[in-house]
Design goal:
Elements lengths: L14 E8 L13 H11 L4 E9 L9 H11 L5 E4 L9 H13 L3 E4 L9 H34 L10 E4 L2 E4 L3 H13 L4 H12 L5 H8 L7 E4 L2 E4 L8 H14 L17 E3 L5 E7 L6 E7 L15 H21 L1 H40 L5 H29 L4 H14 L5 H11 E6 L13 E5 L1
Parallel strand pairs: 1-2, 1-3, 3-4, 9-12
Antiparallel strand pairs: 5-6, 7-8, 10-11, 12-13
Helix pairs in contact: 2-10, 5-6, 5-8, 9-12, 10-11, 12-13
Length: 479
């Protein structure tokens, strides 16, 4: 009798993770809504005989985006060989982006992990299951696109009826309509009046933050000042409709504000060419960037360029005075000339520079090891969390500490890399000599560019006595 080829029976049941996802609860119910409990019940009927090791859920998470904590947990457990099968209620729970869903399932398959579905009766470990998988995922993506289009149509119809989408600051949404917030509404209206009157943006930001009781950023304020909702309009895809909500701003005030916003809608200063020689690397002793301010010393006298701390209006403890830009430039050039002489004549200075770069290389290697260790620890704690060996609060606190450490180490690495990449003493000396020889003929952008290759930063300390010379309190850091 020919021997039969019997399939081996595993000693232990397969380890299965139950994965549940809903886009948004929002109080939904009924037979057509697959709630987390409904999904989990169907999955558990499917996995009878298997060993359930975890239930992972993504609540209020869209299936079109794969940046989900639940997906990351499953991937971590698969990489750690802690799961054999992932069970879902239906394949759309994995995702509604067919390309990314297939890539994720392929990654699991490469790690020896299969995916089974309670609704479609699909097993991705078989060829037939793979074929059915692709068809169902394509249908899920198609269905998601239909939902998106239907939702866009709903928003468009609401806009035509004068009903906006969203809830801008200054309004509250009640019974599917916008109503003026009793506190935030008047504060926004006052911000518009201040802007129309020509008040400085920094003052408007401060007043609005005090009224709202929370931080207000200038960029957000500018967006609010351009929002037609506040003048009683609803905008959808460029079309403007009369809204049914109460306006916070009169048409006259709105027009004045829009004219001002148009005048001020220039390219940010950081994208323009430098307007003075040391812009970008001149600071007060507290690390705030300095800016140039031009004004006459006496009434009717010639205008003089002076340096001020850019943070002085926000911090009373910062006071670098108002040194003349020309005096600071002269002192910086003197320091550059001395630095060039040392680089050319002083062997010890060149050796010190080489030692500094060597130390930076050693420091960089150590920092890289520390950062790798932190990243390894992040993976470890994530795996422990996926196995429910640590609670959510401990995980969140630990991972936050690790992320802070990683950011700090990355910043230190960038600083060390800057030292490692410094030009040679000969190159620095040549750049310094070129700067000194051609300073008078250079344009401001050229001065800033060449000076930045020699000078790391300039720190201006607060004066210790009346009219203390700028040279006595200016510290120049050279490469």
């Amino acid at each position: 009798m020919p021997a039969r080829n019997l399939r081996a029976v595993p000693d232990q049941p397969s380890r299965v993770v139950c994965y549940v996802r809903v886009s948004a609860l929002m109080g939904r119910g009924g037979d057509d809504f697959h709630s987390p409990d409904v999904q989990l019940g169907g999955i558990r009927r499917l996995i009878t005989g298997m060993r359930e090791v975890a239930v992972i859920d993504d609540i209020d998470q869209t299936g079109r985006n794969f940046n989900r904590e639940g997906i990351d947990k499953i991937r971590a457990m698969a990489e750690a060989k802690q799961v054999d099968v992932v069970a879902v209620y239906d394949l759309s729970r994995v995702g509604r982006n067919a390309k990314e869903a297939l890539a994720f399932i392929d990654d699991l398959a490469a790690l020896g992990v299969g995916v089974i579905s309670a609704s479609e009766n699909i097993d991705t470990t078989t060829p037939a299951g793979r074929l059915m998988l692709q068809q169902f995922l394509n249908l899920a993506e198609f269905y998601s696109n239909i939902i998106g289009k239907n939702w866009a149509d709903v928003i468009a119809r609401r806009a035509e009826q004068g009903l906006g989408h969203g809830q801008p600051t200054g309004y509250i949404r009640k019974d599917h309509a916008l109503h003026v917030h009793p506190v935030d509404g008047p504060a926004i209206a006052q911000a518009f009046r201040d802007a129309a009157a020509g008040e400085r943006m920094s003052v408007i930001v401060r007043r609005l933050a005090e009224a709202l009781g929370r931080t207000v950023y200038p960029s957000v304020l500018r967006q609010q000042l351009r929002n037609p909702t506040y003048v009683g309009k609803v905008v959808n895809n460029g079309a403007v409709f009369d809204g049914k909500h109460e306006a916070l701003v009169t048409p006259a005030t709105w027009e004045l504000v829009q004219k001002r916003m148009a005048r001020e809608a220039t390219m940010p200063a950081r994208h323009l060419e430098p307007t003075w020689s040391m812009v970008g690397f001149t600071f007060c002793e507290q690390g705030h960037a300095a800016y140039r301010h031009t004004k006459p010393d006496t009434k009717g006298g010639p205008k003089v360029d002076r340096l001020l701390c850019g943070h002085r209006q926000y911090s009373t403890g910062c006071n670098m005075g108002q040194p003349r830009l020309a005096e600071v430039e002269e002192w910086v050039l003197d320091q550059v000339a001395e630095h060039v002489r040392l680089l050319e004549d002083d062997v010890a200075a060149r050796e010190a520079r080489q030692v500094r770069q060597t130390s930076a290389r050693v420091e960089r290697a150590g920092l890289e090891k520390q950062r790798d260790a932190v990243r390894t620890a992040m993976v470890k704690i994530t795996k422990q969390w996926g196995l429910e060996q640590v609670d959510d609060a401990t995980y969140q606190a630990t991972i936050a500490d690790y992320r802070a450490s990683e950011a700090s180490l990355s910043e230190a690495l960038a600083a060390a890399e800057t030292v490692v990449q410094l030009p040679s003493p000969v190159q620095l000396a040549d750049a310094g000599k070129k700067l000194l020889a051609m300073w008078g003929d250079m344009t401001v952008p050229e001065r800033n560019r060449v000076l930045g290759t020699v000078v790391e930063k300039v720190v201006i300390h607060r004066p210790k006595r009346w009219r203390e010379p700028a040279a006595d309190r200016t510290q120049v850091f050279l490469y």
